């Protein structure tokens, strides 16, 4: 029997989002989920000067900004991940990230002193949160937040919550590659780090799980024998130099996996595998020399295509 599919595709959070529900009569639920993701985009976008994050960034070093409970909760969550990762996850990395994104666009290294200047603005401890007044402030002028490494996961978890409230138990939530499966076991493709976006090298057979990937495959250039890309190490100020070129994580919380996936790239495989156990997350690692490793919980679930 052919399963009914209803799909909603829309732009938000800087990406294409696809919500697929395997039942009839779910348009209202899909609209509610889309509206929730769009609402979060309007609050959390670092590229909109009128968003709550945009206003925090504009007022850095000057004034505290009143924010919604969504933004406050996600920033608090991000700070918690920063503490747990010893600063490897840091949402104040925005100035450094923009510096390297521009460098990648130009295919040239930043000027002398630029990295050091932006690195001095990267410190999650400079996020001043006042829960009582519902405000957030950045300590220094020039600092800026970017929740891009956690916002899609948070939004995907929110869509899952809405679907379950609406008694939708069979669905695939895909927010720009941050995926949650609901219901029966489904094959989820894993990006090939050596190919363009959309090319999978394998799939995972998963049921009621979140799946998040990070990799060094999207943007970059080579200079003097080294590859420079868009994922920046908050301790050095330079792009991550790891034996891992791609990592895919599975677990229960997309938000948590979002935060952990980039961190895993920075840690390297051995340290990351041990660290991920603390969160009950499983991983597929792809190394620069094209070897593939999985943690114990995924053995037998990876199928090459």
Strand content: 25-35%
Q: How would you sum up the global shape? A: globular
- Which blocks of ≥5 consecutive residues have pLDDT under 50? none
Rounded to an integer in angstroms, the radius of gyration calculated over CA atoms is 19 Å
Based on DSSP secondary structure assignment, what is the total number of beta strands?
A: 16
Query: Tally the helices: what do you get?
Result: 8
What is the residue-averaged pLDDT?
94
Question: In percent, how helical is the residue content?
Answer: 25-40%
* Helix and strand sequence: EEHHEHHHEEHEEEEEEEEHHEEE
Which sequence of strands runs across the widest sheet? 1-2-6-7-10-13-14-15
Quote the distance from N terminus to C terminus.
25 Å
Structural class: alpha+beta
Main sheet overview: 8 strands, antiparallel
Offer a few descriptive terms:
16 strands, 305 residues, alpha+beta, single chain, 3-stranded antiparallel beta sheet, 8 helices, 8-stranded antiparallel beta sheet
Report on this structure:
With 305 residues, the chain is α+β, with helices and mostly antiparallel strands. It has 8 helices and 16 strands. An 8-stranded antiparallel beta sheet has the order 1-2-6-7-10-13-14-15. Strands 3-5-4 form a 3-stranded antiparallel beta sheet, with helices on one face. A 3-stranded antiparallel beta sheet has the order 8-9-16, with no helix packed on it. The longest helix is centred in the N-terminal third of the chain and has 18 residues, at 27-44. The chain starts with 5 loop residues before the first strand and ends with a strand. The model has no long low-confidence stretch (mean pLDDT 94).
């Amino acid at each position: 029997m052919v399963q009914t599919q209803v799909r909603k595709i829309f732009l938000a959070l800087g990406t294409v989002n696809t919500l697929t529900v395997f039942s009839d009569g779910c348009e209202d639920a899909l609209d509610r989920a889309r509206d929730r993701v769009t609402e979060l985009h309007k609050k959390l976008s670092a590229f909109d000067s009128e968003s709550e994050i945009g206003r925090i960034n504009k007022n850095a070093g000057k004034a505290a900004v009143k924010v919604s409970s969504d933004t406050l909760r996600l920033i608090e969550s991000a700070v918690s991940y920063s503490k747990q990762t010893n600063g490897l996850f840091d949402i104040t990395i925005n100035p450094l990230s923009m510096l390297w994104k521009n460098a990648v666009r130009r295919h040239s290294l930043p000027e002398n002193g630029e990295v050091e200047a932006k690195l001095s603005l990267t410190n999650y401890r400079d996020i001043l949160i006042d829960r009582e007044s519902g405000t957030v402030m950045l300590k220094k002028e020039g600092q800026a937040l970017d929740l891009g490494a956690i916002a899609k996961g948070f939004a995907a978890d929110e869509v899952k919550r809405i679907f379950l409230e609406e008694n939708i138990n069979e669905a695939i939530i895909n927010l720009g590659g941050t995926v949650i499966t609901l219901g029966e076991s489904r094959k989820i493709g894993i990006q090939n780090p050596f190919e363009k976006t959309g090319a999978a090298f394998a799939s995972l057979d998963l049921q009621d799980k979140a799946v998040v990937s990070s990799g060094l495959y999207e943007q970059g250039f080579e200079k003097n024998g080294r590859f420079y890309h868009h994922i920046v190490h908050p301790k050095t100020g330079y792009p991550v130099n790891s034996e891992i070129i791609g990592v895919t994580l599975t677990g229960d919380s997309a938000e948590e996996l979002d935060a952990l996936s980039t961190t895993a790239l920075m840690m390297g495989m051995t340290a990351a595998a041990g660290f991920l156990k603390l969160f009950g997350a499983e991983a597929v690692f792809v190394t620069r020399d094209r070897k593939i490793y999985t943690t114990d919980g995924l053995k037998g679930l990876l199928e090459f295509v």
